[in-house]
Write a structure and sequence with these properties.
The structure is a homodimer. The first copy, chain A, is mainly α. The first copy, chain A, is built from nine helices and no strands. Chain A has two domains: about 50 residues, Arc Repressor Mutant, subunit A (Orthogonal Bundle); about 140 residues. Chains A and B meet through helix 6, helix 8 and helix 9 of A and helix 6, helix 8 and helix 9 of B. Chain B binds a DNA duplex through helix 3.
DNA sequence: CCTCCTACTTAGACTAGTATCAGTAGTGTG
DNA sequence: CACACTACTGATACTAGTCTAAGTAGGAGG
């Protein structure tokens, strides 16, 4: 007694030293860090834990990022980038027609729910991550708005506001991102069961509703 | 050197000892804890910080709650209770007519945004706070659904599903709660400015949209 | 006034984490 | 091959936090 207490550091001397390129090492570290961030939030990003998981010492992480803060900042950039990449790949899958909105919504929902990006978006948002990632949903907004303009011209209705499309897309995102974070509570608050099926139905209802408002048939 | 290092405990010997009733003490502690939780999230709930802020020692907090975990559990009950109370008081302000929905939405939005309860709801949700607080929005759902039933009977339309009202209320809550947490990011993602005015317009748009879907005129 | 109860304090043990530093060992290059 | 460069280790310092133990003081009831 009194020497195992020397703590985590002592156990498991690291295996044989592996030398990565600085770039490779940074990416490995960031990937693991992002996983923790997405799954369990920013406070789960612990340099010791990350290091051990990779099989390096925590000092190595400090070597590459200077400090935990440095890691978090790099992580923020990295996370923002991968969120953007994911989002763009979903939008790329899209035929450009509002009729494909359900597919898009499902794709977005998958990003947020299954891949843990909801928490990540929350974190980025709270850190005031303003500059990057803005306007990412503009293509979606544009397509919807364009369709509305055509439809209105065709039916001789008043020219719709672009802001409607913006609000709708924002709502879609907000709801889809919030769903994995707080969905269960709010489903229960209206006495709905909290299961996969209800979630899916909710998502469909949301898209159908937004579409029917934007593009009344 | 080496003795100021004895840490925070040492600075500022506490003023004259104040003796509260156990109940009073617990309530004071919980109130401060809830403030930190609502403003800065669960990890901002630090017994030392709370104690110092009240002017007692951290050991006093342990005396009342046993452990930080104990405090968090009490806090969860307390937070859930006050969230419920707030919500109920907003619902009480309501004339029961769907036309008053904007007022209600504003009230709910105020709870979430201005009083920091969005984070609190998020925390409760993540802790899997299932049992309590469920069904809290049932009165709202009921009123909306009732109105829809009447309207449908009057116009000879098909009987509307109750689930629609539930989903709508859930969406309203989800969006209003998520707005203070991640609203700015998503507003920017559709290239909208992130200011008070836009937020307010967004909220109005949301309610108007949901109402127009539920109660087409 | 005495006495008991308990809310509270002070001191400090213990833990988990970040950060630093001197040295070690892969690796690419002349 | 030798050299320099740097990714990485191991030990250790330091900090911020939780929790405990022992004692202190305010207040209520006899």
């Amino acid at each position: 007694m009194g020497d195992t207490a020397t703590s985590a550091r002592t156990r498991n001397p690291l295996p044989h030293r592996v030398r990565r390129s600085a770039d490779q090492a940074r990416r490995t570290i960031l990937a693991v860090a992002e996983k923790h961030l997405a799954n369990d939030g920013p406070d789960a990003v612990r340099v010791q834990v990350i290091a051990r998981e990779i099989g390096i010492s925590d000092a190595a992480v400090h070597h590459h990022f200077g400090s935990r803060q440095g890691l978090l900042e790099a992580l923020m950039r990295h996370a923002a980038r991968s969120l953007r990449t994911e989002t763009e790949s979903v939008l790329a899958d899209w035929n450009g027609k509002p009729s494909g909105l359900h597919r898009i919504a499902d794709g977005i929902a998958t990003i947020y729910a299954d891949r843990g990006y909801a928490r990540l978006a929350l974190w980025l948002s709270q850190e005031g991550w303003e500059s990057r990632g803005s306007g990412i949903f503009q293509p979606l907004v544009d397509a919807v708005h364009r369709t509305r303009l055509e439809q209105a011209r065709h039916n001789g209705r008043v020219r719709p506001k672009r802001e409607d499309a913006q609000f709708a897309v924002a709502t879609l995102n907000l709801a889809l991102a919030a769903d994995p974070l707080m969905g269960s509570g709010f489903l229960r608050s209206v006495e709905l069961p909290d299961d996969r099926d209800t979630r899916a139905r909710f998502r469909r209802w949301l898209v159908r509703t937004l579409v029917s408002v934007l593009l009344p048939s």
